[in-house]
Design a protein that fits this description.
Helices cover 33% and strands 17% of the residues. By secondary structure, the chain is of the alpha+beta class. A hairpin with a 4-residue loop joins strand 3 and strand 4. The N and C termini lie far apart (43 Å). The strands form 2 sheets. A 7-stranded mixed β-sheet has the order 4-3-7-6-5-8-9.
């Protein structure tokens, strides 16, 4: 009897957590020119090569080149979502909402959040705008879509390949496109891990600026296995998770 009560209690708790999540994504059927040279980095064996080959559209209808406009020279945190998703996507978007709050003084000035759709056919700019409002995005949080070919190019630039939206990977990318430092995280519900990586990249930017101001030079992390300074690698490089 005690075991049965405990089981019923756990089931009720899980149901409560699900019901507390935003329901905006239940609208659908659920699960079914100019090139900018950027350093190449490898993350968990998957190359990250953001360029301007893909022209995307944000939730406000603005056309943005992936590397120069969307990523620019900021520290970026990237997720891969679609609005008809009912499990992973709301979770990662909730994580981004927490990040936005924690990073408030730095948002848009130094840090940018990017939510890239994996379902460009259904996720129009208007649909992304409607969906994003449930997470109260502010300046510095872009929701990106575009035509199928451009979105596919953007996903490929991030080392993502999918055949169906519902098979998209649950992961977050944190990087500095200018230096070529990238980290791929799979714990999408742990904003503190993301914040720690953002802090590392911001510290690396400050160190590089100080070295530049003093006349020193520092090479970007363009190799296939960037290492942390503590591991004997180049100072400021971010180690990749196992």
């Amino acid at each position: 009897m005690d075991f049965r009560k405990r089981t019923l209690g756990c089931t009720a708790l899980m149901l409560g957590l699900v019901l507390c999540m935003p329901r905006a994504w239940s609208h659908g059927d659920g699960h079914e020119g100019h090139h900018a040279a950027r350093p190449q980095a490898a993350v968990s064996g998957k190359p990250v090569k953001p360029t301007d080959a893909a022209v995307l559209v944000d939730q406000d209808g603005r056309k943005l080149r992936l590397a120069s406009d969307a990523l620019a020279d900021k520290i970026v945190v990237v997720s891969f979502v679609y609005t008809n998703c009912t499990d992973i996507c709301p979770m990662v978007s909730h994580t981004f909402a927490q990040l936005q709050q924690s990073l408030a003084p730095l948002m848009e000035k130094k840090v940018r959040l990017v939510s890239l759709t994996v379902d460009p056919v259904r996720d129009t700019p208007a649909r992304l705008k409607e969906y994003s409002e449930h997470f109260a995005p502010k300046a510095g949080w872009l929701w990106l879509t575009g035509d199928v070919s451009n979105v596919a190019q953007a996903l490929q630039a991030f080392g993502i390949h999918i055949t169906r939206p519902e098979n998209h990977p649950g992961q977050i990318l944190i990087g500095d496109a200018k230096s070529g430092r990238w980290t791929r995280l799979y714990d999408i519900d742990k904003p503190q891990q993301v914040l720690a990586k953002v802090d590392e990249l911001l510290a690396a930017q400050r160190a590089e600026k100080a070295a530049s101001d003093s006349g020193g030079k520092r090479e970007p992390c363009t190799g296939t296995t960037p290492q942390a300074a503590s591991a004997g690698g180049k100072p400021g490089c971010v180690a990749q998770p196992g």
